[in-house]
Amino acid sequence: MQLLSALLVLGLAATATCYTCKSTGNTNVTANGEQTRNGQFPHHVLVVSTFSEGKRYCSGALVSRKHVLTVAQCVEGSSKVEVTLGAQCLLADTSDNKFRYTFTALEHFVKDGYNSETFENDVAVVRFADENVRLPPWIKPVALPTVDEQYVHDEVYTSGYGLLNYKTTNAADYLEFTTLRVLSYDQCQQEFEFVTPETGRFCAQRDEEEPNCVSDVGSPLVFKQEGYKQYTLLGLTSFGQKFACDFGNAGALQEVRAHVEWVQSFLE
């Protein structure tokens, strides 16, 4: 009887980690990563912005109970921004709706000096509520790094839907993740000559230079110390995504520690 009870518990646990998402219509498309478990990346946010030419789908990170951090290119010039917390599936359906919390942004702020060609200062803060929102346990803000924290050569995680070119085509139905390695600036400059120290950008890549199709524009790159549950936000996917997916090249990110004081000014 004890064995049967244990098996039932294991079965329930396994069931709790799996989910079925509404199909995007992209048959057999994955983002080359592993399917996430419910609540595995509680900070991951789906960002949908409306522009005159249509909608853009990006990702971001929950940094407080009323703020999301994403990249400027996802929201600058938009007429409307929606953020969805707790979204394991790219498209909502009746089975996933009870876990999703969607807010229309009240305002967003793009960092001064944002350059759409070099992607310098490609960060934006989105405020989606006037007061702190009460959140369920499977949605949780990520920790911000200190200015002097560095994670060169550390193993880190990226999560996303494989959203290439802001489109739902070629996207996975569900949230995926993969592990990357933070590169030194010398390694990063072999891919992007204009990425130099102290400019707020850095690179990460899969081991063995395997393709990374998981990271969306704005996808959070996080570090988790062994034995701890809390993630620390190191970066946001900014550019080089297509080459990372097609050829396994390094992808470039905004370095959150370089922008952390600006971000914290909105959280105080």
TrEMBL record:
SMART domains: Tryp_SPc. PANTHER family: IP09309P-RELATED, PTHR24260. The keyword DNA-binding does not apply. The keyword Signal applies. This is Peptidase S1 domain-containing protein. It holds the Pfam family Trypsin. It comes from the Eukaryota. Belongs to the peptidase S1 family. CLIP subfamily. Residues 1-18 form the signal peptide. Residues 30-268 form the Peptidase S1 domain. Keywords: Signal.
